[in-house]
Specification:
The chain contains 26 helices and 33 strands. With 887 residues, it is α/β, with parallel strands linked by helices. The chain folds into 4 domains: 147 residues, Immunoglobulins (Immunoglobulin-like); 158 residues, Elongation Factor Tu (Ef-tu), domain 3, CATH 2.40.30; 261 residues, P-loop containing nucleotide triphosphate hydrolases (Rossmann fold), CATH 3.40.50.300; 190 residues, Rossmann fold. The strands form 6 sheets. Strands 11, 12, 13, 14, 15, 16, 17 and 18 form an 8-stranded mixed beta sheet that branches. It has a 7-stranded parallel beta sheet with strand order 21-22-20-23-24-19-25, with helices on both faces. Strands 2-3-10-9-5-7 form a 6-stranded mixed beta sheet.
Amino acid sequence: MEGELEVGLCPVCNEYRHDLHHNGTVNHRFHFAKWQYNEFSKPLSNNRHGIVLDAQAEQVNNFRFIFKYIRGKYTVKVSSEQLRLHNKTISFKCTIANTRKDPIFLINSTLLHRCSYFTIKHTTDFEDDNTLIKLLPGATYHFQVLFKSDVLSNASYKIPLTCDFQTIDEKSFSIVRTFLAVVDDELDTEEEKIKSPFTSKPWKDVKSTISSTKDSYFVDEYPIPGKYIKILSYGLDSFEGMNVNDEENLRDLRELLAELSLDNYKRFWHVLLWLEERAQGVMLMRYNMETVTVKVSDKGVIVLEVPGLAEKRPSVIVGDFIKIRVSGDHTAYKGYVYRVNDKTVEITHVDEDFLEYLQEYPETELDVAFMLSRLAFERMHRGVDRVVDTGMVATLFPSGRRELPTSNTFTLRDVHLFNKTIAHNSEQKKAVEKILNVTHDLPYIVFGPPGTGKTVTIVEAILQIKNRTKKKILVCAPSNSACDMLAIKLLEKCKKEDLIRIHSSTRERTTITAELKAYSNMDEDDDSFTKINEQILYSHRIVVSTLTLIGRFTDKYKPDCVFIDEAAQASEPETDIAIALVQPGKQVILAGDPEQLGPMTTKCAEKFGLGRSLLARLMENEVYSLDPQTRTYDANFITMLKLNFRSHPDILHIPNLLFYDNLLEPKSTSAMRDPIVGTSIFPVILNINIRREGQAIEFYSVHSKERREGSSPSYFNPFEANVVVKYVTALMRLNLPSAYRVRMDQIGVVTPYKRQVHKIKDRLKHQGFEAVEVGTTESFQGREKRVIIISTVRAQHSLLLHDRKYNLGFVGHNQRFNVAVTRAISKLVVVGCPLVLARDDKWKMFMQLCEERGSYFGKPFDFDTDDFKNDVLNRMNKFKHKDDQYQ
């Protein structure tokens, strides 16, 4: 019906339509104007209808810099020192020439949005709408576009210009030009483009594969059914050449994956795991290599160089298999991955005849295909089956709130606590007491937001169960690092016969600390791993293992209770591996935070639910959810830890508001008394004094452009990398009391892209700051540092670029934002482009909070106001985005 409101998100401005007047709002009209500009500006960047628009960067006083024109864009590149010597100003002299046979009028020439760095200088005042400049045939008109920057930091600055014309018969058209000024101190060391050896070509012509002499020791129980392979390869989307059976199977799978239930539990997860396996296999095929050479050591180890290995592109671990063939041959040979280095893979156990051939002909060109390991998938499939077969699946689908008896079998007095600090934390103590006295068969959840002592709580609970009962306890986590941390905290109160930390034989030996070796299945003398069986597991009260590894002992090891730490990072089938080991009536405790990073999966499997952990799914259930009336959780089933002992209140403010219902209570005395909180770092970089006091949070606006090397999908931003180094340098020379001097190991740098990690590490090492830890958001989960610097990397610098044209990395990702900003104890510094970050409400809140506190530095954040948007709209109203010259 005409005038009826179309509900839902507006595809133009991405805001919810509240009423019929939505399309008339400033924000909608602003985004619609941006869309029009992006749709029509490209063809208008050419000279047209006899009008030639040209610009030259004026190089005065023998000043020389890089200047070029490509497809409607004028670019000047200078170093910060060059710009300083040129009075911090670059002038573009613009010339309009009329080559027509009749006169034409220039009716407007303007920059399409206001920007403090760019101005336009005319000899004629265009403020009056009646102003016309008549250009006779052969005539020219000159004006200037001026760039001026008082801040000489590495960045790039971009502005679009439109010139609007009208013919004597009142036909109008526009010409668009873009001006880009790049301030870059690394102009002579621009990153070299690396040719990629990856071909993405499948091996369809291989007729036989010679097995490795160390082939896999398990039999595939859950291979992908042949009838599903093609359907899964297309991510459950329709594809060309589908037959009737394909269409029927596709409908069946889509219907199955619509919703997980108690009745379809097995088949749902089997199909979804097959989808994930197929998606990973297709992604891995992208890294197939052609015509490469290898080195073969005297001991018969094949050394293969793999670009991007440090970024896990491709992801290769010890124990994987790799197929190698002479280029174009029909026979392939499997090799075993013995070691993974930063740039090379060492391969052993290849067929001896083939190895001798490579040793004799070392220049032989080879093709390489990486093979996806099925071990983890097999164990998840088996875990899903066992959870259903044992009946434990019923506990994963609770229904309705329950009344439970209040009496406790065990009383937890302060004197009984192993960690006495828990006595002063009511939530931690309550969680331990409830776990010790559980009277139901549902999983118990310890909901641990950042810095609230989740690990301390579950370690206390484990030790209390060990001390007060005879139960066998299994402690698991998705990663080795999380398992190591738990084991180290537990062994302080355990004897060697009480605790064992079991490792996979493929684990890198150097990552295991000396204290862990004494409590693990590792021989301290020769660093070899001893074989583990169920008798060894039963001989210890506490077993600590990764979720995947413990799957080796399904049907053999039956603990009385299972603790799963970092449960929000594990997919539900991965969690099932451990749950499958216990029988109904036994305890399962899940600890984690669904508001932090979840399971790592491919996008096609994530959208059907593999990216949601069991812990996250349970917390959506009524039994585990927050009561909106009392704003509390039912402590019989879940405890939320509320006291944050890590971060300064200002650092915690936004995540507390957005993700934790404002229930967290900042309690970090060390952060509150840290003098670095009151110190602004950016003025130290510029060596200037400011009167206002510093804040715990600080934002620096960088207008730059991200880059990629060759075909690598990982971005880096050299401008931001340089700013990070300047911040670290400033932190290291702060004039603070000796007890509070900043050490390198107290600084962490977080960035979403691994290529940026390496760029920042290289620059810090060059300056002697190699002890500063640099990593991705994922690598910092569960970690903390006195100072955190975040480099957001993505920095599309044009205000008028349409939002949806770009993948913005971790911008817009709630969990990555939450993890990144909650690692800091006393000082959080964010370096990024506000034009990109403002598109996300969370980052916008952060920038606005910094503005309010006076800790926002760099280009002002004014482009999100209605006043600014209206100004852009007024300018663009004069812009003729559709050429009506011949209409």
